[in-house]
Amino acid sequence: MKETKEFFLEELNKHKDLNKAKFFPRFFKTGPGEYGEGDLFLGITVPKQRLVAKKFAPKLSLDDLQSLIVSPYHEVRLTTLLILIQKYQTKKITEIEKEKIVKFYLKNTKYINNWDLVDVSADKIIGDYYFDKNNVMIQKLKNSKDLWENRIAILSTFHWIRKGRFEETLMLCEHFLNHNHDLIHKATGWMLREIGKRDIQTLRTFLKNHATKMPRTMLRYAIEKLTTSERKKWLELKMEN
């Protein structure tokens, strides 16, 4: 008799698209030496994955999800994370159940190994869980030598930004000023931009203190929503130093 996870995989595979399966590896940089090296794709769009996740979230246990999160196929891992989010956001979930989901997530960060996997999940699980707790885990992720754990750290704080709390994000952005990867420059710039949408003066203060040291990509992402004249001012300041 088939297990539920086998029905899940069959359902997911119904949405395969050969053309997308050929395109996605280039989009997600899976070539030799690239950040997504070796990842495999079925060619399934995110909206289709969300439909499958919604259908199977109540049926799959964490043990089932453990066998799925290690899949070599990107879409299986992403749909697994979408299910994990749905479980975490269940209205009647207990604190103990939340803790189990968070432990599952942190145990499996090596499989949350591309920017979309991080971005869809980090704030909704890690950010939410640690919002009113000691942020030692965020510090651990920040100090990790793993690119994706670094991105989880900064993206987790998106939840806090939405709640109007910016201190941790600003601290992480300052910490990552000298990070060597473009994906962290983009993530930190994005979070600074989100702060600026809510409190432009906080963004300007950060720029005043750090614009000359910010990687160019980080700066461009951070100032994207500013006026043309103000963007020009910050970019010229960067060029002068």
From TrEMBL:
Source organism's superkingdom? Bacteria
Residues crossing the lipid bilayer are: none
**PANTHER family of this UniProt entry?**
ARMADILLO-TYPE FOLD (PTHR34070), DNA ALKYLATION REPAIR PROTEIN (PTHR34070:SF1)
Give the protein's recorded name. DNA alkylation repair protein
Taxonomic source organism: Leptospira levettii
